[in-house]
Amino acid sequence: MRLLKEYQIQLQYQIYLNNYLDYLLTCVKKLGFMNSLEANIRENSTKGQLNAIRNDGNVPAIIYGGKDQNQKISISKKLLKILIEKENFLSSIINLKVDGKSQNVLPREVKYHILSDEPTHVDFLRVLPGVKIKIEVPVNFINHEKSPGLKRGGVLNIVRRKVELRCPSEKIPENLTIDLDGVDIGESFKISYVKLDPEVVPTIQGRDFVIATLAAPTVMKEPEKPAEAEAAEGEEGAEGSDGATAAADGDKPAADTTKGEKKDSDDKKAAEKKPVEEKKK
Fold first, then answer.
1. Which of 2, 40, 69, 163 is the most buried (most CB within 10 A)?
2. Taking CA 128 as the corner, what is the angle to CA 122 and CA 132, rounded to the nearest 5 degrees?
3. What is the distance between the alpha carbons of residues 180 and 81, in angstroms, rounded to a whole number?
4. Residue 266: per-residue pLDDT
5. Are 39 and 57 found together in one domain?
6. What's the CA gap between 114 and 140, in Å, rounded?
7. C-alpha distances in Å from residue 176, one per residue of 17, 185, 196, 205
8. Residue 143 is part of which domain span?
9. What CATH number does the domain containing 168 carry?
10. What is the pLDDT of residues 163-194, one digit of tens each?
11. Is 46 among the domain residues?
């Protein structure tokens, strides 16, 4: 009976583990296809028709570039917002399936509603092999915890969060990575620090511009005093308080002497007045 219970527990654990692995696999598959969108061709162009598309939960868009004609499409607003939340949305190639046909496009502009901040229109550029384009790529910093400069209170001053590059559409880098491992206060990162493909070049030419610097903290921390110095200060404070007490005690007799002298002078004056009064009598 005991063996049967142990077998049932192991079986349940195996079932749970298999379900969990299936769940992880599904998540990985979703992430792998996160940069793909389904699109439908639209023929409408009037303001009323476009508003009707938006009310149905879709966003009007257009595909342009290359020798083919521009295509008017509509895409799901929910799926579009998931992609927009990515930092590098405007520099990521998206696989767009229009009526079953796949094509790679690059988001170039997203228009938003002035009040609700919801996406209202998207422009997509066709990605053609060999065609060079200008694109802004985000800068990514890694290994913050391994930087001795940051550990000592240094501040990472980011001059450029994005760098504009000119590159073939099939060689667009996902981001520019800067490693902070071993970086100390006073060091800077220039565009020459980043390793780029020979066909990928920055649009700013003629100078090695700065991307970020590791600056000293604006408020320096006061160094902690050693225990010996604190003990010495404590002894000096104690001596000072003893001296003040002694001085106070030493002043008291002087005050009493002054009072005694004043009393004697008063007695003399009284003795001098008595003979004068007797003469009058």
1. 163
2. 90
3. 32
4. 55
5. yes
6. 30
7. 38, 21, 9, 17
8. 133-215
9. 2.170.120.20
10. 999 998 888 888 899 999 999 999 999 999 99
11. yes
